[in-house]
Amino acid sequence: MTHRAVPASPVLAVLLLASMVGCARSATDSDRPSSLLIEVFDGSTMGTTYMARVVTAEPWDDARREQTRASVQSALDAVESAMSHFQLASEVSRFNQTRSTEPFPLSSPTFEVVRTALELAQLTDGAIDITVAPLVNAWGFGPTEPDLLPPDADQLLRLRSRVGFRKLELDEPTSTVRKTDPQLEWDLSSVAKGYGVDRVAAALRDEGETRFMVEVGGEIVASGLNHLHQPWRIGIERPSDRGGIQRVVPLSNLALATSGDYRNVREVEGHLVSHTIDPRTGRPVDHRLASVSVIAESCLMADGMATALEVLGPDEGYDLAVERGWAALFLTRDGDVITARATPAFDRLAPDGGTME
Ligand code: ADP
Ligand code: MG
C-alpha cells in the first residue's frame, strides 16, 4: 500500500473511474476555492485495487498517515480473510469444506453479509444466490481449476441441484448458519467488496473523518463533501471501445456499486463468458446489459443489488428496480452504441450531470 498527499494520477483499471473527475481539478489547482487537501491511500485487496481519499485542511504527519493507512488496510484484510473463497482458512472456505449439516458458527461481519445476501435473494427470487459456487467453479471463475470443456447440459443439471439459497438456514441468536444439503457450497464475492468499502468507511469514521471517498474494485462510498465543497463526482465508465465517462454521478453519504459483463470474463470455446452466473440456467449471463450501477445506503446492499440486476438483465432487471424503488442505471450495448436508462429513483438521487469524453 502507498499513500500520497495529493490526488492520484488518473487511475484505475476498475469499473468506475472514481478519481478521474476529481483529478480534472486537483487539490493543488490554483483556482481551488479553499486550501483543502486530499490524503490518498491505495493498494490491493480481494484480487483488485482500492483507494481511500480523505479531505483535510492540513497535510498529515507520518504518524497520522500511518495510523489511517493501518486502519484502512486492517478493515480490508479482515473482510478478505473471513470471506475470500481463495483463502483456505477463511470462514467461507471452511464452510465449503465441511459436509456437516450441524450449525456452523459465523463471525458477526460474515453473518451480516450472509443475512443481507439472503434478503436480496428473497427480493429477487434468487437472481443473486450465494450458493452458486459450484457453477462459478465450473465456469472457471472460482478457486478450483475448471474442466477443459464447459459443463454440458447433464453436468449443469447436476450442479444446479446443489444450488439454492433456501438450503441455508441462519440463526441470529446463536450467529450460526446451517446447510441442509451437505453438498452445499457458497461464494460471497458478489457482496464482499461492497462490504469491504462499508468497513473502511466505518474505520475512517472511527478515526473522526467525515469527508472521504472509498473505492474497492469500482464499488464506492462517498461521505460528506469533497475538497471543492461539493458532492463527490463519480464517473460511470462507458463500457465501449470508445471508452470515456457515460455519466457523472454526484454522491454524498451514499454508496454506488456497479456490475458489468466486460471486466471479469474468460474465453470458453471462442466466446467470452461473464463471471456472473444466472442461477436459473446455470450459465453465464448473456444479454445486452453492459453494466448496471446502483446507489444505496450501504455498499453491501448496492453491490448485491447490482449483481442481482446484472443477472436479470436490461428488461426484467429494470422492471424489478422500478417496482422496488431501487436507484439503478442500466447501460445496454448494441454494437458499439451504448444506451443509458435510469430508474426514477436514480435520476432523483443523481440528476444527470451530463457526460464526459
Ligand atoms: P463485479 O462487481 O466485479 O461485476 P459482482 O459483484 O457482480 O462482481 O460479483 C460477481 C461474483 O459473484 C462472481 O465472480 C462470482 O464469484 C459470484 N457470482 C456470480 N454469479 C452470482 C450470482 N448469481 N449470485 C451470487 N454470486 C454470484
Ligand atoms: Mg456485486
Describe this structure in words.
This protein has 357 residues and is α+β, with helices and mostly antiparallel strands. It has a domain of 98 residues: ApbE-like superfamily (T-fold, Orthogonal Bundle). Helix content is 32%, strand content 27%. It contains nine helices and 19 strands. The strands form five sheets. It has a nine-stranded antiparallel sheet with strand order 1-3-4-8-9-12-17-18-19. A three-stranded antiparallel sheet has the order 2-10-11. A three-stranded antiparallel sheet has the order 5-7-6, covered by helices on one side. The radius of gyration is 20 Å and the shape is globular. The N terminus is likely disordered. The structure holds adenosine-5'-diphosphate and magnesium ion.
Task: Note the topology.
Elements: E1 2-4, E2 16-17, H1 20-24, E3 37-45, E4 48-56, H2 62-83, H3 91-97, E5 104-105, H4 108-123, H5 133-138, H6 153-160, E6 168-171, E7 176-179, H7 189-206, E8 212-216, E9 219-223, E10 232-237, E11 245-251, E12 254-260, E13 265-268, E14 271-274, E15 277-278, E16 283-284, E17 289-296, H8 299-324, E18 327-334, E19 337-342, H9 344-349
Antiparallel strand pairs: 1-3, 2-10, 3-4, 4-8, 5-7, 6-7, 8-9, 9-12, 10-11, 12-17, 13-14, 15-16, 17-18, 18-19
Helix pairs in contact: 2-7, 4-8, 7-8
